Here is the input.
Amino acid sequence: MPKFEKALICINGHILTSCLSENRHLEPLNHCRKCGGGIVSRCSNCEVDILGCEYHEYESWATHNTDTYYHESSFELPAYCHNCSNPYPWTEAALKEISEIIALSDELDDVEKAILREMFPNDLIDGSSTVSSALRIAKILKPVADTIGEALKAAIASKVTDRALVFIGWN
Here is the structure.
């Protein structure tokens, strides 16, 4: 069964470490060095640790000591808590930003705005409706790509899954 380290992430989604035991010097930090945002290591809803990198312990055949191998390079910023499924602060901020940008659009009608607000959360994760949501988003944004589309792309493209980026046309 895989084991996971604890991660330290700022409320804006900057990863301080995905492997806290190897970076204990970071634990006393209260604010992110990139943006000044607060730092979290647990879900604010259920208080469970944010899963960091996966690791494996194994016994060295030469020394018979237990060694640990950390898979830090495979760590991806999680969008939702693995325990209670609530969005992390950076996900909530992205969803709020999406909603605010959509609301500012004069080119979209209320139905299109509602569809976009409903579809974008599906593209923050790699799920069964990611592609269809991305296609609907692309269809609605095509006529307004120079304005609202570019604003949305600038604000959240780094948070949308790679698969969704392709179908929205932002890749």
The longest strand covers residues 51-59. The longest helix spans residues 89-104.
